[in-house]
Amino acid sequence: NMNYFLRLITFILLMFNASNNVYADNIDEILSALQKSNFSEKEELITKLGNIQTNKSLKVLKSLEKGILYYIKESKINVFAKKVDKKYELTDITSGKNIGLIKKNKIKRISLNNKLRKHTRTIIAKSSLLSDNKNMRIEAAKIIFESNLIELLPLISQALENEKNKNVIKELLKTQASLSLLSGDKLLINKSLDYLMKTTDPEIISVVNKFIEKYKTEDSYKEEIIKANNLLNKINSDLKLYKLIENLFFGLSLGSVLFIAAVGLAITFGVMGVINLAHGEMIMIGAYTTYVIQLIFPQLIEYSLFIALPFAFLVTGLIGVVIERLVIRYLYGKPLETLLATFGISLILQQLVRSIFSPINMPVTTPQWMSGMLNIHPALSLAYGRLYIIAFSIAIFIALLILLRKSHFGIKIRAVMQNRPMARAMGIKTNWIDSMTFGLGSGIAGIAGVALSQITNVGPNLGQSYIIDCFMVVVFGGVGNIWGTLSGAFLLGVGNKFLEPYSGAVLAKIITLIFLIVFIQKKPKGMFALKGRAAEINQ
Questions:
Q1: What are the beta bridge partners of residue 374?
Q2: 475: how many CB neighbours lie within 10 A of its CB?
Q3: pLDDT (tens digit, 9 = 90+) per residue, 176-202?
């Protein structure tokens, strides 16, 4: 009995190995046949390859679709090939080991035409529906959705029965509905139209149009055609609504960027009356601080922004205090000289950055938590990065509001803003307030640089891209008023984004500038004028 049991186990193991060898032999035979077959024969071979349904066969199919499946002309061995300079790096299909570099004329690619490439993608999708990876299953459902192959409908229905993941089920249901529309079965067609009416996914427009084109001449489908047209009208109506929301979101995110960049300038301009053309360079230094932090702590990329914020504030704030003590303090009441001096400082800072970091843009990595999109609807996705910047700008606004209204330092700043001689008479050291305010404004500009490093290039000219917009926001909102700065930034941002689809980006900027010029003619002090018996700086 023991001998019989051992022989049985041995037989099962031999059969298992034999079955694996059959798969291996089949794949090798198919690959050999692909080398010398024409396009019509390749379609059948690719189908056979898909039916094997092993990791190796799936890998071969993917490499075939990507165009990296080759064979060596002399030995007829199939390999994966990747171009490296003027040669190709070969990888063994079975073992995955690197074979080495070889010249192009020594290998030949197993080529596909567009029809075969589409067929291969469909075969890959069929195999991927059984994968343990949910992203692969979602991608497979999308490929089948794009294929419009009605014969795959049973496969989708079977996959739905076994699926547990909500995101995969959602994609499979959409695919099932789109394929059912072209099935000719009126019951399935009506169920599909009812389901699609709830989702209003813009991706199904082409399928619905194809359905209408296919059955519009048949009277028996008259009711279904009406439902399909109603579906199209609803999708187009929803698209307009979501486009409006998207433009509003982009406008708010642009307004947030403008507010973060301009609020520091609003404070220094409001207290000191200084036209600081070096404000953009403070933003640039804040962005470079982020780059340096990521360079020093490469293992802390996910926390780099939180580390960079206090460092950017301190570095740019200190630079601001030094500039005020060494240059600005001697030029109060001389706006033209101040403008020229700060312009010269901005050129010096730009050249200093070029000398230290080089003139080219520096790479700043976006943390994983800021990447990706928030999918609200198939027609509306919001970038996490922009959402965080909107939240960040509101946090800065609240912090400044508390600082200016609740702290002792903030009360002194507001006193100097409203009536400098009276504040001095009350014992407030206005020179000290000027230095600290200039440092505060520069520090906030540095924080703005940290935020901007995530949405634009970090280079020596970064600040110059925002300085004009900063002055526009400050003048439009009202000098020295952070409520005005916030309102001005959001109004200009939203207005600009709503103009762009109709006029283009450049013309939208011009229209905004013209509007601002006309507005300032009517209200020279901006939307929120600075209040106070003197307010002489802003007259």
A1: 382
A2: 21
A3: 888 888 888 888 888 888 888 887 788
